[in-house]
Each structure stands twice: as C-alpha cells, then as structure tokens.
Amino acid sequence: MAAVRLKQIQLETPWVVLDFQGEGTYTGQAANSRPDGFGTFVYSQDSAKSKSDGWKSYTGSWKRGSPYGRGSISYLNGARYDGNVVDGKRAGRGVMSYKPHDHARMRFRGKFERDRKIKGIIWVTVSGKEFSYDGEFNNVGHFHDKNAKVVINGTKGARRYSDDKWIDKPVGAVDLLVQTIHHYY
Does 71 lie in the same domain as 96? Predict the structure, then answer.
C-alpha cells in the first residue's frame, strides 16, 4: 500500500473558538473577535437567533460577524437550508428541506429574497400523496402564481392556485397537502 502524504494548508486567518454568552459558540476564522471567513456557529436554545428564526446552527461563510455567502442552516424543527445567505437571511438560490413527521416530506428549490421564498419548485409527499408547485410565492411564502405548473399525483396542470385561493376547485388530499405546506413551511 502506498504511503499517503498529507499537505499542510496554511489558513489566512487562524481558527478560533469564540463563546458568545447566552447566544452560542463559534468555531472558525475570525477578525476583531467576531466571525469572519469560514466557520460554524451553534446557537443556544435561548439565543435571540433561535427564538426569532429557529436556527440551531449555521456553517459557512461569514463577513464582519454575520452569515454571508454560501452556507447551511440547521433549524430547531429539523429543517435544513443549503444556499446563499446575506446578512443572516436566506437570499438568492437555495434548497430547503423538512420532514415534519414520518408520513410527510417537503423540499423547496429556488430563489429566496429577504429570508422568504419567492420563486421555485416545492415538492410535498404526505401519506403517499404527491404534490408539486412550480411558480411564484407571495410575501408570506404562500402560492401566488395563477400560471404555475402544478402536479398532483402525476397529473400536470390539474389545479391552479393564486393569492391563497384555488382558481380551480382542489380535489381530495390536495387540501391536506396545501395545509401541510402552509403550516410547516
């Protein structure tokens, strides 16, 4: 077996561990005693970020003490976001996934602005029923595109939804799917 040579990497800024009393702990690159570069912040459950945004941890790029650039957010409810972050808010392209219980799965891939999804595709499966919506979202994150592509259990364009109201009457389990999306997302 050939010997493995490890290459030592010199980081521009050294890694540190910073304890923010009551807020959490940061491990990574820093400047002026605040996160700057790449690192991980694990928030305490009593922290302002956990209480206001439900964050459990953030791993990724930091700029002057704030999440900025590519990163991953883990939420207290089990959700996960991978994508762009600007000043601690989801912004630009990203993927959000969540499994609220054993019988449901949700995933959104698209564009975020000021921490809200604005355009993209959401897939939901609840108890074997599948639903997807490809379109725009209103300012509270609900469906908002009467020309969106909707797929219900493999049937494309079956229903249209806009401003939180069905344009076409929904069928059966679709109401449950939409309620689940609005409740958990």
Answer: no
Identify the bridge partners of residue 152 per DSSP, sorted by sequence position. Answer: 131, 155
User: 25 in helix, strand or coil?
Assistant: strand
| Two tokens, residue 9 | 């990497």
Same domain, 112 and 69: no
Please tell me what DSSP assigns to residue 171.
-
pLDDT at 147: 61
Compute the radius of gyration of the chain from its Cα atoms.
20
Measured at the CA of 114, the angle between CA 98 and CA 72, to 5 degrees, comes to 40
Mean pLDDT, each 10-residue run in order, the chain (185 residues): 51 80 94 94 91 93 96 93 95 91 83 90 80 76 64 56 51 52 52
How far apart, in whole angstroms, are the C-alpha atoms of residue 70 and residue 50? 20
**Is 4 a domain residue?**
no
Report the C-alpha gap between 143 and 32 in whole angstroms.
Answer: 43
- What b/e sequence results for 57-69 when a residue is b if at least 16 CB atoms lie within 10 Å of its CB, and e otherwise? bbbbbbbebebbe
